[in-house]
Amino acid sequence: MMNDELYQHKLDYFRQNEKPEVVLLIANNDDLTRLVIAWGNIIVERVETLPSPSDDSEASAWRWLWENVSYDKAELLQNSTLSVVKFEQKLNSLIGNRVIYPDGTVNSYVQRYLREMVVRLFESKSKARSKKAS
Questions:
Q1: Residue 14 and residue 101 in contact, taking contact as beta carbons nearer than 8 Å
Q2: Is the pLDDT of residue 29 over 80?
Q3: pLDDT value at position 132?
Q4: For 67-95, how does the pLDDT look when each residue is reduced to its tens digit (9 = 90+)?
């Protein structure tokens, strides 16, 4: 298997084994939520020549995936509106807990949670407008 195919294979493995509990990390945490939203709005690119992974462990595979992408951390920091002090810690937490993926996507459970929150926000605003009009 070529390393490009291996990269996709390993990334797919993590997607197929997502844990819904990671939603609890961002629920009611504005900093992490802002960072997840910002993650979905930056360009992430794979390095051109992928080295072979060091071993087959799950932890090593996750590290290998992240070591072989590039993205603009300054842009991510700016878009998240986090302080520099909080940024690295929060980003490492999202990466370590597999909330964000090294291809610029987000854990599907987290994505669904965020979409539900947006729908609820719009519904509550719509109900508030209806009450004012009555």
A1: yes
A2: yes
A3: 66
A4: 999 999 999 999 999 999 999 999 999 99
